[in-house]
Design goal:
homodimer; Arc Repressor Mutant, subunit A; Beta-Lactamase; 6-stranded antiparallel β-sheet; globular; GAF-like_dom_sf (chains A, B); DNA-binding (chains A, B); WH_DNA-bd_sf (chains A, B); WH-like_DNA-bd_sf (chains A, B)
Chain lengths: ~260, ~260
């Protein structure tokens, strides 16, 4: 990524990209090394970023992402804006289940978590706001993959399907069948694919044009899982968010939810 | 702010700063004008930002803040990290009250909202994640101003105190008395200071060193306000978050909460 041909803009963005969940606070030397920049250049860029508020310096002299960058980023329509519309419905879903509630979107071949509501008693999960996971192993990822079109599915199945537990589906043929079932049933169940004690039930969120723009899920301990009881709640929340985004359900047989892709 | 002496880094940051809640999507021409840049320069910077993922281009050709910037910004300790720790307590507070629940920090002379939980039936409020408000008119702002030190208070009271309703406190002497009462009682009540139908009850969140790092509030319709009943719930949530941040309460008389500043 870095190299002599990098523009000033690219160097500045490489400084921001040096931060990650595993190292959210960095010294100037660490920043220069991670961004592959000479120390004086790093110093100059960090000074500009700090003055603007994109970085903040703590008492120990380490830098971290600043509040102003967070404020600007809060304008991302696929981040905070979608989350704002979804939040009341996620709240209701949380109250109905008292389990982990997730909202996620797809970015390339990964799922990105926009929101996680979890009570202190909910099952421990690996999700985290801003975190990325592969599509095939999570409930939200299965929904987003199933509705992402055949080209995406072929590309995804051609790559390696990472395994997290003995239950993770790593066989492309089996994954394709699961995706067809997700489209048919209108929801996805990921059973112990990420951790061997949790299960997630997910449903698609549609935008005004009917395309799937996000997914909602509930993650529950597998021991206490009442999957059939969770499905209607998750689908209801997803449809509520879809309606708020301008989606209108296609007329279907009375009493039967439509199962269109 | 802009000028011929701007560095490449400053120009790039000016492009990001062109976005605001009132105009979250901008054409290249609008971006160039708002960032005070020649069109070719704006084009080059926008291309670099888009390739990195800091901006995304929609079907109509307009640019908005991208998911990758949102992901990086999610590492801001005063943004998402604090929010992650606070969320279970905010959830509990929401469930106990079913009203708007807020988490906010101070940045300069303003309060910045990090989180807002609100059911669909809660009173309409002007707060928004990432939004800024003056300190004297909101419950969270009163808490953060009261615990921000005398220098901040003098500076704040020397400026103009903006009025939003006939109930907004704009008299510096009265504001100082309110701040002393906030420190004494351990909570703040902002009564119809932002809108004439809502009231907020706020309490301080302390960090490991005992300093006030954030504030929690509940906003309720003034008609149905049961302020005395809300105070313990808000204080409990704020203390729960403080404990999770490493704060330990000073030993006080048994059964009486300490009211130290």
């Amino acid at each position: 990524m870095p190299g002599p041909a990098r523009s000033a803009a690219d160097r500045l963005l490489d400084v921001l990209a040096a931060f990650a969940h595993e190292h959210p606070a960095l010294t100037l030397t660490q920043l220069a090394r991670r961004a592959d920049l000479p120390l004086p250049t790093a110093h100059r860029l960090v000074a500009a970023l700090t003055e603007w508020g994109a970085l903040e310096r703590d008492d120990s002299g380490r830098y971290h992402i600043g509040l102003r960058l967070w404020e600007v980023a809060a304008l991302a329509p696929r981040g905070v804006a979608l989350r704002e519309i979804a939040l009341p419905f996620l709240e209701d879903l949380y109250e109905a289940t008292h389990e982990n509630v997730h909202l996620a979107v797809r970015d390339g071949l990964q799922v990105v978590y926009l929101e996680r509501l979890s009570g202190r008693s909910a099952v421990g999960v690996h999700s985290r706001v801003g975190a990325r996971w592969p599509l095939h192993a999570t409930g939200v990822g299965l929904v987003l993959l199933a509705h992402g079109g055949s080209e995406l599915q072929e590309r995804y199945c051609a790559g390696e399907l990472a395994s997290f537990t003995p239950y993770t589906v790593t066989d492309p043929a089996r994954l394709r069948r699961m995706l067809a079932e997700v489209r048919r049933s209108g929801c996805a169940v990921s059973d112990r694919q990420i951790t061997d004690d949790a299960l997630s039930v997910a449903a698609p969120v549609r935008g005004a044009r009917g395309d799937v723009v996000a997914a909602v899920s509930v993650v529950v301990p597998v021991a206490a899982a009442r999957t059939p009881a969770l499905v209607p709640a998750v689908r209801l929340a997803a449809r509520g968010i879809s309606r708020s985004l301008g989606w209108q359900p296609a007329p279907g047989p009375a009493g039967r939810p439509e199962a269109s892709a």
